[in-house]
């Protein structure tokens, strides 16, 4: 039982949350990398001084980092302790080793001890996605890497700052190994600046409420968060539920990778087993353990968004280590696809299990790929090298409450895409269109949201195109009788009219492009929810009127007959067609 | 020239009016129910209630929520969009965000449906070069088609029009040629900045509310004219400045934050007139709390307001942050056993339990009542009196039993959590912008603001709370004292080292010239014109900008660099000598200062000679410090200027209740404002 009154507890909880929010904001606004400043691919948190357990994390941080940063902080603390490294005020450790509780090497973590009255009180850590950490392709997302070394520079925890002084030697090693290094110093300073701001604010909080009180409060938050999560889990019916999802291929071997989840719910606890998933793969679609576990935490947190985030939140969630699968990668397996793609597929598998357990709380699968497309080359107009890095959204799945949203962000992120007007200012490209991916929403009583379709043309010089996307082979799953969303597609069109479709459908790298060539992308739509034959004919008519899909689709997918002249539904014809379709479906089932 | 001015502000519940005769120092105050169907009825009825001859009124200044409500309720004009081929879905795609970090159930409806978005052949590149010439025939066809589909307004929105608006302007000209209407908007005429979604939405918001505002204002203006008012009605804009109703609709998007702007504008006036440089404003009503900042007498402005999810409005507006904390905010215990307050609100209906309108869940107002902070015998807005025992028992069942606290302690806990949330919101609008709350005075108004202000100030280390004389009429007062204001911006977007400083000077001078001409075209009496200039800057490679204040037009490059470095250090605790700054754009604001109104005018006539005579009673009130204690009740109207008294005390007035916690000294200034020293 806590000795602090409930009110002080709530005040301190808000205070810690605000410290983290302020760090998030300062880091984002000061960053140079657009992946941090525009797509908010960063996170800031406070961690327990001994255990590294998560105490509080910024609300605007990238969701996938929620679990990961606790693992990375714990791994770094163990590393520091094992080696007996002395820790002084103003020291900052920098590291990005994916096998140390990380994601991919481009997510660089800073870890700084927070001293209060001469003692370490807690740790601050933040992660930022650097646009490049070296490796065989610009941006680090190589679809054909077979070893981690090909993905970039790997750093164990090293002191980039020693008692507030930057270590120029370590800095020079880092800057000599990354592309467009002149901007990195700006990101490093933004990242450290955020921790400095956190330091000031947490000191004020402790001055106000006393270190002992805040300390006991932090322990209490953990208990409370666990209690709330247990209460939420308690609403799920006891039982065992299965879910699955597929990664198109690993980029090397053109075969799908299977993620299989068995979710067992007993009382107020959830147990996850992934052991029937595919074995480790040769290409970069392996996932490190921290990312796999975080993806499961994150999927559950999406279902129960009101549970605050700290180490206690995930206490009632038990995940067996998926030894021997591609979801538990060990050195030197390449892993660049795990944070953006495999993690989302893990979420989808969990959603697939959850939507069977709690169909009123969950949804059909969201598009689930970040649509990662990078273009690197020389801009002859400005006489400089560039690395463009473009992400896109896709449709969300339908749910009991309505159709899925179009062009939603990945499950594991929550970030804006760069505007066309910004991309065209920076790079020698021209977008020919950027629009809804028509006919992509999975049919359902509540249909999936629509994906995006864009086509971009190279206006000058030569460039290399690389991409790691997914759902090229199978669309996001429908749920409760709904159909799957449309698949992802990417096609390169050369100036002379030839076309190139990648062998792995959604992944390729180093494709040469010259002026006038263009690439077109269609991102997936969300899965449909519920039987499409039960969709209100008026909604179908409206969808057709807005050209989300065609009159023919309305008949084929929804059994709704629309008069092409008036654009209205023929209700008698619809009833007859639906009756016939239901009969056929029953027969084939 | 007559000496009578009227300020009239339409809020969600009440339409407030203040009429001041500057010669005789007479003041008329009116509060009538708002008429949401047509706000003009409430405005006219408030004016009629004063029984004053409209012919004798020099100015009527109006704060309105007509455009805000139209947008939030989507009762907007049917608009058509003409846009670059390949990009008709820009307004629907947004930037792939979702409303909340967790949870994937979300809905978004674009302001213009897909069938009313038409593409034409045309294309500029990012340098403003023509890639595809404008097909004028297609524009004409698009206009005809949209007209047939019954649109009332047309938005022309082309890619990269911020750098070269030629195609957009030509298309708008064609549209106006075919269809003589005022309701054709070229996107870059509304804002000239890059980011196609934000610019397109801002232009669309403008087009969608322009006919609504136009109809409303011309009807109101003509009704006022029929009643003898001869001059231009002045309208409060979201930037805290006024504009003539004749041209207000040309800048319709500027009125979207008109409501909160009048309050902040009043605060800015107090800041100067009563000698408070920096204020944090806290306007707390029944469901929400609006927080703004006045720095050096000038309201802080943002150009990145998001009215709701997917509805960014990028024109300069007072930077008001709204949180769901008001008298009606519901208190509850969550499943983790933590006490929470809001954002869910009982609103005006069913309302707090004590209003007797069927409310069953305890609210902040109920908590204030239980602690004696509100007078149980004199509650406003009560339908069916509810016994204090009933409120007490609800507090015990819903809160006390779980926390193991009695009803008073539970109520105190509810208030503390509510205060804590508001304090958190203030911290985000001050600290996150590099402002230290300790340099500020908390300006508390609205029905519930003064109930909570001292506790919030304590939480934040804000040293003083200013409760103005008429906290419930501040918005109407803000209308009267606001300046005429217009904002201008031009994009430069060049590295500082490549910037021609002569161009900077030319842009700023041109902005000053345009501003001067606009103010002169308005039929408003102005004492004095003043100009302020700002630059937005960033480092090359960054996407976010910092706002830098320029001392004058003749700024030098080295000075720009130095100002930027300093601002950067203050905000981010970082210095970046190795990076190259970029000058993004240049802003000019013109303020047409109107005659100043002495604050003394508002002084109450019935003030007692001695502070002791302002005490009208005593009741038992619960304070965190000392629990229940006998507390004197002061009548605000009876409190004489230039006196002082100390807490614990309660000050009651028609429109609010002020809580003076034990240990707080109250100084009454010469204008009758209460300054609570925390």
UniProtKB/TrEMBL annotation, chain A:
<dbReference type="GO" id="GO:0016874">
    <property type="term" value="F:ligase activity"/>
</dbReference>
<dbReference type="GO" id="GO:0006749">
    <property type="term" value="P:glutathione metabolic process"/>
</dbReference>
<dbReference type="GO" id="GO:0005829">
    <property type="term" value="C:cytosol"/>
</dbReference>
<protein>
    <submittedName>
        <fullName>Acetophenone carboxylase delta subunit</fullName>
        <ecNumber>6.4.1.8</ecNumber>
    </submittedName>
</protein>
<dbReference type="Pfam" id="PF02538">
    <property type="entry name" value="Hydantoinase_B"/>
</dbReference>
<dbReference type="GO" id="GO:0017168">
    <property type="term" value="F:5-oxoprolinase (ATP-hydrolyzing) activity"/>
</dbReference>
<keyword id="KW-0436">Ligase</keyword>
<feature type="domain" description="Hydantoinase B/oxoprolinase">
    <location>
        <begin position="5"/>
        <end position="532"/>
    </location>
</feature>
<dbReference type="InterPro" id="IPR003692">
    <property type="entry name" value="Hydantoinase_B"/>
</dbReference>
<dbReference type="InterPro" id="IPR045079">
    <property type="entry name" value="Oxoprolinase-like"/>
</dbReference>
TrEMBL record, chain B:
<dbReference type="Pfam" id="PF01968">
    <property type="entry name" value="Hydantoinase_A"/>
</dbReference>
<feature type="domain" description="Hydantoinase A/oxoprolinase">
    <location>
        <begin position="199"/>
        <end position="487"/>
    </location>
</feature>
<dbReference type="Pfam" id="PF05378">
    <property type="entry name" value="Hydant_A_N"/>
</dbReference>
<dbReference type="GO" id="GO:0006749">
    <property type="term" value="P:glutathione metabolic process"/>
</dbReference>
<keyword id="KW-0436">Ligase</keyword>
<dbReference type="Pfam" id="PF19278">
    <property type="entry name" value="Hydant_A_C"/>
</dbReference>
<dbReference type="GO" id="GO:0016874">
    <property type="term" value="F:ligase activity"/>
</dbReference>
<dbReference type="GO" id="GO:0017168">
    <property type="term" value="F:5-oxoprolinase (ATP-hydrolyzing) activity"/>
</dbReference>
<dbReference type="InterPro" id="IPR045079">
    <property type="entry name" value="Oxoprolinase-like"/>
</dbReference>
<dbReference type="InterPro" id="IPR008040">
    <property type="entry name" value="Hydant_A_N"/>
</dbReference>
<protein>
    <submittedName>
        <fullName>Acetophenone carboxylase gamma subunit</fullName>
        <ecNumber>6.4.1.8</ecNumber>
    </submittedName>
</protein>
<dbReference type="GO" id="GO:0005829">
    <property type="term" value="C:cytosol"/>
</dbReference>
<dbReference type="InterPro" id="IPR002821">
    <property type="entry name" value="Hydantoinase_A"/>
</dbReference>
<feature type="domain" description="Hydantoinase/oxoprolinase N-terminal">
    <location>
        <begin position="6"/>
        <end position="177"/>
    </location>
</feature>
<dbReference type="InterPro" id="IPR049517">
    <property type="entry name" value="ACX-like_C"/>
</dbReference>
<feature type="domain" description="Acetophenone carboxylase-like C-terminal">
    <location>
        <begin position="503"/>
        <end position="671"/>
    </location>
</feature>
<dbReference type="InterPro" id="IPR043129">
    <property type="entry name" value="ATPase_NBD"/>
</dbReference>
């Amino acid at each position: 039982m806590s000795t602090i009154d409930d009110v002080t507890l709530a005040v301190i909880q808000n205070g810690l949350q605000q410290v983290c929010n302020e760090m998030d904001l300062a880091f984002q606004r000061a960053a140079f990398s657009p992946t941090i400043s525009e797509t908010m691919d960063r996170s800031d948190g406070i961690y327990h001084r001994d255990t590294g357990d998560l105490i509080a994390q910024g609300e605007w941080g990238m969701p996938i980092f929620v679990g990961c940063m606790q693992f990375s902080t714990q791994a770094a603390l163990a590393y520091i302790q094992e080696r007996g490294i002395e820790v002084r005020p103003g020291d900052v450790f920098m590291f990005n080793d994916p096998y140390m509780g990380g994601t991919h090497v481009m997510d660089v973590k800073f870890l700084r001890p927070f001293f209060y009255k001469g003692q370490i009180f807690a740790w601050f850590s933040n992660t930022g996605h650097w646009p490049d950490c070296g490796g065989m392709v610009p941006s680090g997302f190589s679809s054909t890497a077979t070893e981690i070394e090909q993905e970039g520079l790997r750093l164990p925890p090293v002191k980039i700052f020693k008692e507030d002084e930057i270590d120029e030697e370590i800095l020079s090693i880092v800057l000599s190994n990354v592309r467009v290094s002149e901007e990195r110093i700006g990101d490093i300073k933004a990242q450290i600046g955020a921790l400095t701001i956190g330091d000031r604010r947490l000191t004020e909080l402790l001055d106000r409420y006393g270190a002992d009180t805040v300390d006991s409060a932090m322990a209490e938050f953990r208990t409370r968060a666990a209690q709330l999560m247990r209460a939420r889990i308690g609403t799920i019916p006891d039982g065992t539920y299965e879910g699955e999802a597929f990664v198109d291929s690993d980029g090397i071997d053109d075969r799908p990778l299977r993620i299989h989840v068995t979710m067992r719910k007993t009382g107020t606890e959830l147990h996850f087993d992934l052991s029937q998933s595919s074995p480790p793969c040769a290409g970069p679609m392996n996932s490190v353990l921290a990312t796999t576990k975080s993806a499961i935490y994150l999927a559950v947190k999406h279902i129960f968004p009101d549970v605050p985030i700290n180490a206690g939140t995930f206490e009632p969630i038990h995940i067996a280590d998926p030894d021997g699968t591609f979801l538990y990668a060990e050195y030197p397996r390449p892993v660049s696809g795990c944070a953006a793609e495999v993690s989302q597929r893990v979420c989808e598998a969990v959603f697939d299990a959850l939507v069977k357990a709690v169909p009123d709380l969950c949804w059909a699968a969201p598009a689930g790929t970040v649509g990662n497309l990078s273009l690197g080359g020389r801009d002859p107009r400005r006489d400089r090298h560039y690395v463009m890095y473009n992400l896109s959204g896709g449709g969300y799945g339908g749910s009991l409450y309505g159709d899925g949203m179009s062009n939603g962000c990945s499950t594991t992120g929550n970030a804006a895409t760069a505007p066309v007007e910004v991309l065209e200012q920076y790079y020698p490209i021209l977008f020919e269109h950027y629009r809804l991916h028509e006919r992509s929403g999975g049919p359902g009583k509540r249909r999936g949201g629509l994906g995006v379709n864009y086509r971009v043309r190279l206006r000058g010089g030569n460039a290399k195109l690389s991409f790691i996307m997914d759902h090229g082979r199978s669309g996001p799953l429908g749920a409760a009788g709904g159909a799957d969303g449309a698949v992802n597609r990417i096609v390169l069109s050369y100036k002379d009219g030839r076309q190139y479709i990648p062998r792995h459908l959604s992944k390729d790298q180093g494709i040469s492009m010259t002026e006038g060539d263009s690439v077109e992308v269609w991102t997936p739509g969300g899965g449909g929810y519920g039987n499409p034959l039960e969709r209100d004919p008026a909604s179908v008519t409206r969808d057709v009127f807005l050209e989300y899909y065609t009159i023919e689709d309305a008949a084929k997918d929804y059994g709704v007959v629309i008069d092409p002249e008036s654009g209205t539904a023929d209700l008698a014809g619809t009833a007859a067609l639906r009756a016939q379709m239901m009969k056929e479906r029953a027969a084939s089932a | 020239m007559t000496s009578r001015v009227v300020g009239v502000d339409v809020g969600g519940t009440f339409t407030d009016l203040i009429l001041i005769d500057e010669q005789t120092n007479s003041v008329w105050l009116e509060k009538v129910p708002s008429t949401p169907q047509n706000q003009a009825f409430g405005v006219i009825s408030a004016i009629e209630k004063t029984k004053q001859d409209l012919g004798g009124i020099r100015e009527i200044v109006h704060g309105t929520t007509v455009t805000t409500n139209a947008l939030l309720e989507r009762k907007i004009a049917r608009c058509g969009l003409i846009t670059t081929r390949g990009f008709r879905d820009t307004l629907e795609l947004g930037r792939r965000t979702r409303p909340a970090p967790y949870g994937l159930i979300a809905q978004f409806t674009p302001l213009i449906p897909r069938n009313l978005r038409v593409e034409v052949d045309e294309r500029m590149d990012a340098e403003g070069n023509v890639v595809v010439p404008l097909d004028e025939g297609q524009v004409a066809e698009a206009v005809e088609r949209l007209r047939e589909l019954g649109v009332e307004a047309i938005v022309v929105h082309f890619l990269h029009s911020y750098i070269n608006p030629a195609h957009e302007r030509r298309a708008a000209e064609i549209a106006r040629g075919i269809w003589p209407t005022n309701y054709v908007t070229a996107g870059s005429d509304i804002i000239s900045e890059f980011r196609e979604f934000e610019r397109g939405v801002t232009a669309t918001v403008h087009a969608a509310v322009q006919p609504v505002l136009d109809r409303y204002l011309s009807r109101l203006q003509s009704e006022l004219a029929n009643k003898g008012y001869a001059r231009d009605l002045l309208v409060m804009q979201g930037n805290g400045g006024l504009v003539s109703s004749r041209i207000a609709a040309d800048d319709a998007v500027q009125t979207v934050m008109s409501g909160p702007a009048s309050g902040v504008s009043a605060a800015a006036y107090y800041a100067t007139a009563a000698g408070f440089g920096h204020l944090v404003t806290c306007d707390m009503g029944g469901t929400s709390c609006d927080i703004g900042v006045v720095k050096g007498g000038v309201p802080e402005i943002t150009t990145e307001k998001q009215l709701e999810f997917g509805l960014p409005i990028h024109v300069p507006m007072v930077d008001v942050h709204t949180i769901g904390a008001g008298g009606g905010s519901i208190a509850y215990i969550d499943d983790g056993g933590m006490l929470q307050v809001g954002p869910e609100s009982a609103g005006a209906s069913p309302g707090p339990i004590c209003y007797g309108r069927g409310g069953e869940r305890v609210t902040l107002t109920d908590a204030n009542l239980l602690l004696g902070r509100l007078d149980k015998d004199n509650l406003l807005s009560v339908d069916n009196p509810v016994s204090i025992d009933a409120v007490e028992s609800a507090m015990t069942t819903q809160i006390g039993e779980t926390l193991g606290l009695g009803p008073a302690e539970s109520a105190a806990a509810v208030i503390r959590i509510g205060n804590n949330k508001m304090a958190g919101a203030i911290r985000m609008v001050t600290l996150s912008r590099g402002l230290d709350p300790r340099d500020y005075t908390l300006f508390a108004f609205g029905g519930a603001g003064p109930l909570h202000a001292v506790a919030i100030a304590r939480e934040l280390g804000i040293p003083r709370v200013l409760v103005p004389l008429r906290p419930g009429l501040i918005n109407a007062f803000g209308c009267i004292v606001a300046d005429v204001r217009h904002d201008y911006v031009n994009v430069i977007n060049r590295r500082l080292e490549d910037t021609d400083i002569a161009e900077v000077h030319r842009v700023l001078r041109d902005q000053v010239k345009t501003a001067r001409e606009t103010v002169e075209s308005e039929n408003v009496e102005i004492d004095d014109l003043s100009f302020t200039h700002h630059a937005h800057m960033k480092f090359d490679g960054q996407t976010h900008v910092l706002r830098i204040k320029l001392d004058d037009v003749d700024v030098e490059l080295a000075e720009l660099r130095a100002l930027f470095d300093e601002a950067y250090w203050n905000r981010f605790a970082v210095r970046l000598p190795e990076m190259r700054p970029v000058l993004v754009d240049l802003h000019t604001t013109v303020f047409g200062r109107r005659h100043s109104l002495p604050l003394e005018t508002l002084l109450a006539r019935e003030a007692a000679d001695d502070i002791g005579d302002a005490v009208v009673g005593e009741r038992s009130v619960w304070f965190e410090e000392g629990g229940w204690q006998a507390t004197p009740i002061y009548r605000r109207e009876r409190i004489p200027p230039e006196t002082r008294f100390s807490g614990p005390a309660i000050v009651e007035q028609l429109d609010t209740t002020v809580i003076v916690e034990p240990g707080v000294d109250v100084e009454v200034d010469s204008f009758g404002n209460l300054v609570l020293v925390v």
